[in-house]
Design a protein that fits this description.
Blueprint: H1 2-14, H2 18-30, H3 35-45, E1 58-59, E2 71-88, E3 91-102, E4 105-111, E5 122-133, E6 136-141, E7 146-149, E8 176-192, E9 195-206, E10 209-215, E11 227-238, E12 241-246, E13 251-254, H4 270-275, E14 278-291, E15 296-300, E16 312-313, E17 317-318, E18 322-332, E19 337-342, H5 344-351, H6 355-365, H7 369-379, E20 383-393, E21 396-406, H8 411-421
Parallel strand pairs: 1-2, 4-6, 10-12, 19-21
Antiparallel strand pairs: 2-3, 2-5, 3-4, 5-6, 5-7, 8-9, 8-11, 9-10, 11-12, 11-13, 14-18, 14-20, 15-18, 16-17, 18-19, 20-21
Helix pairs in contact: 1-2, 2-3
């Protein structure tokens, strides 16, 4: 295996035990540290001067720390700090994650040792490791880090404590505090890392929006219809959108007053929405430019519900497909384009018929594509207001629609709003 080769090479270069190096390397890889970066980190740990370990780290303002650094000295205020469990050498290991700030900026950190960090602490960290995470630098505070607490607090222009609303959350956020309503909640049994595990999953809401959640250690306070305060939640990506995760280290408290949840989804420009990396509930308005192949009358696998081609499912092989309706269309507002996906009910509404009607049209035309052509005639060239779940990946941006309505917006007003949102000067917008 590649990890054995790297561990053997490292152990030979550094003059240390191979199994010890391999265990450390596996731990870093399990925490999604890239292999090259993990190798350099271990060279620093075991004292190989070729990686920069022989020189003292420089003192940096947070805004000046780059992913190219290996280690820095930094002083800052702990904005958030929350415990989380990861699997390390076959057993659970508790780490602390959060944000550190000075008057120049904010940086995420992971503490691998128990330093006793709390929000509001002013700390000085010497020889703090630096890693790259999602293109940004992150501090690693470990056994080679010297950390001291300062009596004189540092003034920073950021809020301490991690209070957030759902619309502000992004994948990778940690130690966040939320006050939300539980809109949907169900108990499920999954195949977890320790075998079958019971979890809660559903949807949370507040005035700013909605997000899915998973509660890995179910608590009675989280139930449909309840309003709760969640402390020390973290956010990770699930199916292309941010998801709130509530762990055994989170604190959940029932609220006496109900949280108001907005009935409207936030409206965004398509380019702005795509730039977020994924939004669970969003409204987009744009012109429908085309209906893509794979629309109209389709067949799905009876086992996994995936769309099949010529009776073949990628997972289950040759199957007898189930007839269904779907639309995949391109929506564009001038700032970006997204593929809008309509389910069978929304497709029936724009087509003007159900599956049986579609099958009859395809038989009469002796062409299954006739159904998609009819849908094209109905919707291409019009402006639509679409609400749904936006996911963004290497294949593009897709919006799984929950509503699909022809827009009655004034195009002049909408153009003006887009220009204002982009901070462009608005002189005159002609119809």
């Amino acid at each position: 295996m590649e990890i054995d080769t790297h561990a053997e090479d490292l152990a030979s270069d550094l003059g240390v035990d191979k199994e010890e190096v391999k265990a450390d390397l596996q731990n870093l890889l399990e925490y999604s540290v890239p292999l090259d970066e993990a190798t350099q980190s271990l060279r620093r740990k075991y004292g190989d001067g070729s990686s920069g370990g022989g020189s003292s780290p420089s003192t940096k303002a947070i805004a000046d720390i780059s992913p190219d650094e290996t280690a820095v000295n930094v002083t800052g205020v702990v904005l958030t700090a929350g415990e989380r469990s990861i699997r390390y050498q076959g057993s659970d290991h508790v780490i602390v994650e959060g944000e550190l700030a000075d008057d120049t900026g904010v940086i995420d950190f992971t503490a691998w040792e128990d330093f006793g960090l709390s929000p509001g602490d002013t700390v000085e960290a010497g020889n703090a490791g630096v890693r790259e995470w999602d293109g940004e630098p992150e501090l690693n505070l470990g056994e080679n880090t010297s950390l001291s607490f300062l009596d004189d607090g540092l003034e920073v222009p950021y809020e301490v404590g991690g209070e957030a609303d759902l619309a502000s959350l992004r994948t990778g956020d940690r130690a966040k505090t939320l006050e939300v309503a539980v809109l949907e909640c169900e108990e499920r049994t999954i195949d977890g890392r320790d075998g079958e595990t019971t979890i809660l999953s559903g949807v949370l809401g507040d005035e700013s929006g909605r997000l899915p959640f998973t509660n890995w250690d179910p608590v009675p306070a989280i139930e449909a219809g309840a309003s709760v305060r969640i402390e020390n939640a973290y956010v990770r990506e699930f199916r292309g959108v941010p998801e709130v995760n509530v762990s055994e280290f989170s604190t959940v408290t029932a609220l006496e007053d109900a949280i108001d949840v907005g009935s409207e989804a936030p409206q965004m420009g398509i380019g702005e929405a795509i730039a977020t990396g994924g939004v669970y509930d969003v409204e987009l308005v744009g012109n429908l430019l085309a209906v893509r192949d794979g629309s109209g009358l389709i067949q799905r696998c009876p086992e996994c519900r995936r769309v099949i081609q010529k009776g073949q499912c990628r997972t289950h092989g040759s199957v007898d497909g189930i007839d269904d309706l779907r639309v995949k269309a391109i929506l564009d507002d001038g700032t970006g384009a997204v593929t809008v996906v309509l389910d069978d009910e929304l497709t029936e509404a724009v087509y003007g018929g159900d599956v049986e009607d579609a099958k009859e049209e395809a038989r009469d035309a002796m062409d299954q594509e006739a159904v998609a052509d009819t849908i094209r005639e109905h919707i291409v060239g019009s402006e639509y207001r679409v609400r749904g779940h936006l996911s963004v990946d290497e294949y593009g941006a897709n919006l799984d629609s929950t509503t699909f309505d022809e827009s009655d917006d004034d195009p002049v007003d909408r153009a003006r709003s887009l220009l204002e949102a982009a901070d462009e000067p608005v002189t005159e917008v002609s119809p």
